[in-house]
């Protein structure tokens, strides 16, 4: 039995592929920012054990897909240590904050994880596909995956150290040399360059958040932790309505219609989706090193223009 926050669909898909069964993936409640609630995790683990089930892994998230939420890793690690559970951190999106001295605190406690996933093709800008699985258990991948196929992985090669033949440790056989893209990009950017890139993304997200709060018709879903800014836009035609089912139903239709209009016009590509139990909201992801505050203003200006005559 595995435990995860309400997050990425890959958890349930992985359970199905592995034969664990999606019923054995237990969702843990999250707070108003979208972060896992440790007390609920503990309660779910104790309940599972009381029913004779066998918890074995907790999946925490650093940088969720929608709100960019960071789970409290130290509190979760304490619980995993107490119950002898594997702690995996999905830092595919949020792992890049470790490159910034100013923002790496968001992943405090990540060093206690058994494994971490990280996607340099996201905020770091490495071309797709570039993903890493990192574990502190140095021989584990070899023990789990190696089949010692001598027609591929000869142990008596003399031209180099065969411990560098990592193919037998992975699930797949043939694969792209993704690490080369990361190495070249990192050499070009450098540690300082990547730190500046991450800090700039945070600065743009903070600016966008401030503008959403200031502008009439816009409303934040929640205060962002990362560079995901989720907000609603109320067209003039529905602002006069009292809070209730009718207004929520009309607001729910704004995202899809504005998305259609911006796509047809070719001016923006900003996503939308429901946020937990709330209606559709815009999800602006700020990560490009080429944008600044003026571009953030343009995003809000363009949403206003596109929705000017909207009567959902």
Fold and architecture overview:
By secondary structure, this protein is of the alpha/beta class. It has helices at residues 10-18, 38-50, 73-83, 140-145, 178-214, 245-252, 254-265, 293-306; strands spanning 2-5, 25-28, 57-61, 86-90, 115-118, 132-135, 218-220, 228-233, 271-274, 280-285. The strands form two sheets. It has a six-stranded mixed β-sheet, with helices on both faces. It has a four-stranded antiparallel β-sheet with strand order 7-8-10-9, with helices on one face. A hairpin with a 7-residue loop joins strand 7 (218-220) and strand 8 (228-233). Helix 2 (38-50) runs parallel beside helix 3 (73-83) and helix 5 (178-214) crosses helix 8 (293-306). The longest helix is centred in the middle third of the chain and has 37 residues, at 178-214. The radius of gyration is 22 Å and the shape is globular. 30% of the residues are buried. The model has no long low-confidence stretch (mean pLDDT 93).
What's the overall average pLDDT, rounded?
Answer: 93
Protein structure class = alpha/beta
- Helicity, in percent? 25-40%
Radius of gyration: 22 Å
Read across the widest sheet, the strand sequence of neighbours is 2-1-3-4-5-6
Can you count the beta strands? Answer: 10
Give the N-terminus to C-terminus distance in angstroms: 44 Å
Strand content is 5-15%
Label the overall shape: globular
**Tally of separate helices:** 8
pLDDT < 50 stretches: none
The secondary-structure element order is: EHEHEHEEEHHEEHHEEH
Biggest β-sheet description: 6 strands, mixed
